[in-house]
Amino acid sequence: MTLFNLGAREAGHYAEPVTLADLVEQGEARSVVLESGDEVAALKPYLNRLELVVLRFPIFRDGRGFTQARELREYLHFGGEIRVEGHVLPDQADFLKRCGVDSVVLPEGSDVRPWERQLKRYSVSFQRSVLPEKVLDVGTRVAR
Amino acid sequence: MTTAIGQYQYDQVDRDFLAARIEEFSEQVARRLDGALTEDEFKPLRLMNGLYLQLHAYMLRVAVPYGTLNAAQVRAFADVARRYDRGYGHFTTRQNIQFNWIRLEDTPDILRLLADVDMHALQTSGNCIRNVTSDEFAGAAADELVDPRVHAEILRQWSTLHPEFTFLPRKFKIAISGSPNDRVAARFHDIGVIARPGDDGRVVFQIFVGGGLGRTPIVGQELYDSVPEERLLATLEAIIRVYNAHGRRDNIYKARIKILVQALGVAAYRNEVEAELAQMDIARYRLSPEMVASIEARFAAPDLQAPEGAAAVLAEQRAQNMVFDRWVRSNTHAHRSEGHIIAVVSLKPPGEIPGDVTADQLDRLAGLSERFAYGELRTTHLQNVVFGHVRQDQLYDLWRGLVDVGLGAPNVGLIGDIVACPGLDYCALANARSIPIAQKLGARFADMTLQEQIGALQINISGCINACGHHHAGHIGLLGVDKRGEEFFQMTLGGRADDQATVGKILGPALPEDDTVDAIARIVDRYLQERSGQESFLETLKRVGEAPFKEAAYDTV
Amino acid sequence: MKRAVRVGAGEGLVITANRLLDGAIVWLSADHTWQTAIQRAEVLVSDAVSERLEGVQSRAQADGVVGIYEIAVRPEVGGPVPLTMRERIRAFGPTVHPQFAYEQQEGAGA
Ligand code: HEM
Ligand code: SF4
Fold first, then answer.
1. pLDDT value of position B485
2. B428 with B495, same domain?
3. Which keywords does the record carry (chain B) (predicted)?
4. Do B165 and B288 belong together in one domain?
5. Total structural domains in chain B?
6. Residues of chain B with C-beta less than 8 angstroms from the C-beta of C96
7. Using CB atoms, which residue from B24, B37, B281 is nearest to A74?
């Protein structure tokens, strides 16, 4: 597999992530993998120990992961790494990044150029995100 | 280029953004062609650019934000129709325009041509927040409390490439109006917003949620009575976040927000929204007066100057020309400013395809808008177009120009003003053809005197249960069904989309096309017998119930 | 659309798709190429269809077609005529714009 970094944070090395059910059982794991139907709020008791949250996309059209990532950053103030695995497209790179995702797991040998291009594509966005973006002077615009 | 009047004026940042978006789409097309993207992956991506694959070709749906166009944009549509389509455009019930004969390989060029006049096809399809619709009389109607276009534009921008809400369970439609007379079908939208002035002079918003048509027609319910302007975006984000997290994804027919609202109940949905708001970093979502002002500053207001006595000129011309007078009675609406009037152009000439315009007609409409309407044209959710600000003393000349291009039908709001989806002639999902039956009905009731005598009667036709023709909201609704390979039509009565929104009730068994046309003729006859005084069809239906109409419909001697 | 296509006596099946580049409707001919005129379509018996479908599915990307499926037709002198209104509209053009009908293009290659 290939790890692609969406932002400045370098993907770290962690023990194999456990499922949410296992986390609840054991409690001491430092990395967890959430399915798209899992509630992010369930991570609250374990936050100070967690270093990595992996969000699994069963298919790229299932957009629940975007909300999960945003809730992790905005509601739980999670400062560790958020990683996405499963079926995602390079066309979603910027969306993932702006929702607070740091890295993406790609199949071995994937072409990362479309991912890189997508991250550089826009110099403006039209709504605030969880990133520290500069607010511009017109409407809801922010600089990238 | 003419100055846009009721429309946000782009700057270089907006233009650069559109250019980058088109570049993105061109690359997606290239990746599809070389096989890097499968059709299943490409489809949602092209849909977010308004590109469908229909029966005969691709169909491109171009966004008309809050239904407002300038003359240059209308000419660009004519250009697309001529160069890349077969000479036609088709206005839809969501104020957009569709081109039915498009090639995938031409699409990036078409998008560039449109971008030259600040137009795009963004988010006119796909499971994202769709083009925001608004009142076709915005900024002009005498009954308006708040001009909704500034906030419609804010919503358009805020929803553009929204990082969190671009892969929702299903499409998401928002409409906004600033008049108590709902002309946007707010209660049949995923979110309907009605703006009005608040106590402190800032705007407040009444918010309806969970309305929709389709397989499960539901009238939206009020979620909030008055959301302050500063909290508008926060509230919408919270509503949609709840939906994105909990809306069903296992069954596309149960994936709309209306199903979730029904499942939870509106009170529980409100609790969920409140729980989100309580955790959200509200400052980040604040819509400040400065932000609103910066958008408002990009709109130009027309300098409405009508000469003294404009109204008298119009009265005189009406007195002299009965045909013109009839058109004024049906196709105009009161304007807020003295000496002005709103003119509605019917795109339903008897026997023609509802909503269709030729490239030549588009060019002429553009020219007329420049001469008579400050270079502005609006589209309506009933597939017509509107000149928002017309001087009363010039209305006659405008009308003459319209008659000249075959667009003088005096039938707005009458039985000939039929709404119909593309149906089986174009649409890959259809059960039956919607257009031929619309044409037959149009021809059957072509007599304008009869139409006027019948009065307000809205017929809506959909070719399948997706309800693009809003059949549930028609006073008489027709739904195409397939009965062993034959096209049949199921009739509903009593639907309406206004502030008393109601889902029409099924009258009885579906009928074949010609029998349906006859049945409607008998229903109309029966109404004319039953009505007392100046009662409208809906009023008579309410008073006498559906029994007499059912009897008339199925009375095949 | 995913219902098994039923074929009566004297009826057959043809395979159809849309071309990726321009969306045009195409029909599978006897020489396994995609043609824009239904008159050139090969009429198959039920048994032959699934194997043929598998073959063209696997070549869809190379052939530049999408949405491959089979439809029932009645063979007639002028060529196969689809049994359903939907497929007749696909084969012969929209009923509401006679000028867009496909018959004139008979024989046009893919
Ligand atoms: C020809 C290609 C079209 C296709 C494939 C198509 C497809 C669909 C589908 C699948 C739905 C149902 C979505 C759902 O309930 O989740 C829908 C709804 C709708 N369509 Fe279309 N449509 C087409 C054209 C049009 C046109 C031409 C109009 C306008 C005249 C239109 C207006 C609408 C509207 C307003 C709805 C919303 C109904 C509701 O509130 O549920 N569509 N469309
Ligand atoms: S109602 Fe059905 S037939 Fe009509 S356009 Fe929508 S999907 Fe097609």
1. 80
2. yes
3. 4Fe-4S, Heme, Iron, Iron-sulfur, Metal-binding, Oxidoreductase
4. yes
5. 4
6. 353, 425, 433, 435-436, 439
7. B281
